[in-house]
Amino acid sequence: MERSPLPWLATAARLVLGGVLPVAGALELPDPDTAVRAVHRRGAARRGRGGHRLSPRGDTGAMTTSTLTRARTRFPSAVLVAVGLAAGFGVAQGTGVRALGGAVFALGGLAAAWLWVQRRGWAVALGLGALYVGAFVLAHVLALGMGMAAWLAVSLVTIAAAGVTWAVADRPRPGAGA
Q1: Rounded distance, CA 112 to CA 150, Å?
Q2: Measured between alpha carbons, how far is 94 from 6 in angstroms, rounded to an integer?
Q3: Which residue ranges make up each domain of the chain?
Q4: Buried/exposed code over 151-173 (b: 16+ C-beta within 10 A; e: otherwise)
Q5: What is the pLDDT of residues 16-63, one digit of tens each?
Q6: Residues 90, 16, 157, 105: what is their CA dihedral angle, to the nearest 10 degrees?
Q7: How far is CA 28 from CA 33, 37, 79, 112, 170, in A?
Q8: What is the pTM of this model?
Q9: Other C-beta atoms within 10 Å of 103: how many?
Q10: 47 contacts: CB under 8 Å, gap ≥ 6
């Protein structure tokens, strides 16, 4: 009997949106006025009435190199950790193919590891990688060994791993500038 891929695709989409949308909103909480002004400036630039706009050559105008670096690396690696663990579980459950869920888990971990190396170096990346794999193992221990519901075990370890990842790799460092 052939299974339709639609249910597991819908599950994966829900898991991604369930992780990305709250994080995107949370990133705007420290200064919501800045977020509103940025949206207004983008609209004005499109209509040709002021606002910062890149030149046709791709000049960045008055943006400094450090601003550009922060803009490129601001995506939180904790989101990749959460999506890797939760979506990997969802894909494995939805399709019944554990290897496919493992591939999603591995891709999330590799993407997060790339950010960790860029931001904090190899030592932190190896430590957070061990945490990521440890969370995966702990979810199995909680579900299989302790009899906890699988979705609850995955949810708990995902929240814990993403929280530690944010604290270690994504939280702004004191004295790093605005």
Answers
A1: 24
A2: 9
A3: 7-170
A4: eebbbebbeebbebbbebbbeee
A5: 666 665 666 666 555 656 666 665 565 555 555 554 455 555 555 555
A6: 60
A7: 9, 12, 15, 21, 15
A8: 0.61
A9: 14
A10: none
